[in-house]
Design goal:
By secondary structure, this protein is mainly α. Helices cover about 70% and strands about 0% of the residues. Strands 1-2 form a two-stranded antiparallel sheet.
């Protein structure tokens, strides 16, 4: 049951990621794609985050995740079996707030890794070769979950076993979504 509950908890972010991939592939919102989150700021002569972290990505992830949370809350309200899956009490936590926390946490979680990679001269969307490659792979896969968990804790903190299962769900879902980008 815990795997189903963790997957249900992660579903709005997973679906938001799929929408984000579609927006990129279809080149929707191109004006927002040209607006980097870092505003072109540099540190030590290198971009703070790079061109791949854009306003379009933030707007898409936060907006789509929030929309999917609203849909999920409606399903939970109308369906007893979905209510049993939900770890979040939508009577206590407003869906709009929950969606903003999840989507915003996803974006915030990716920023430190992007900063480090830019400072190491790793190209956007790439990983360094050599002994650091597995470390960066793991960071690329779990950084967004870390951001979600940190932001989520302001509203609701999942038990440790749920967070661990979420890590497993993320390690399956994130690489599958990444395959769609190629």
């Amino acid at each position: 049951m815990i795997i189903a509950q963790a997957t249900w908890l992660a579903l709005p972010v997973i679906l938001g990621g799929l929408v984000h991939v579609a927006v990129i592939e279809l080149d929707l919102l191109p004006a927002l794609a040209r607006l980097p989150l870092d505003g072109g700021v540099t540190v030590r002569g290198r971009r703070l985050l790079g061109d791949h972290k854009t306003v379009r990505g933030a707007v898409t992830m936060i907006g789509a995740t929030t929309a999917f949370v609203a849909l999920q809350a409606a399903v939970v309200a109308g369906c007893g079996s979905a209510a049993r899956l939900s770890l979040v009490d939508f009577g206590r936590i407003r869906p709009l707030v929950w969606g903003l926390v999840l989507g915003g946490g996803y974006i915030v979680g990716e920023l430190p890794n992007s900063f480090v990679k830019r400072q190491l001269d790793v190209a956007p969307g790439e990983r360094p070769a050599g002994p650091l490659a597995p470390v960066f792979w793991l960071c690329d896969e779990l950084d967004s979950l870390a951001g979600v968990l940190v932001c989520m804790s302001a509203v609701w903190a999942p038990p440790a076993h749920v967070a661990l299962v979420l890590a497993g769900v993320t390690l399956v879902a994130h690489p599958l979504i990444d395959l769609l980008k190629r």
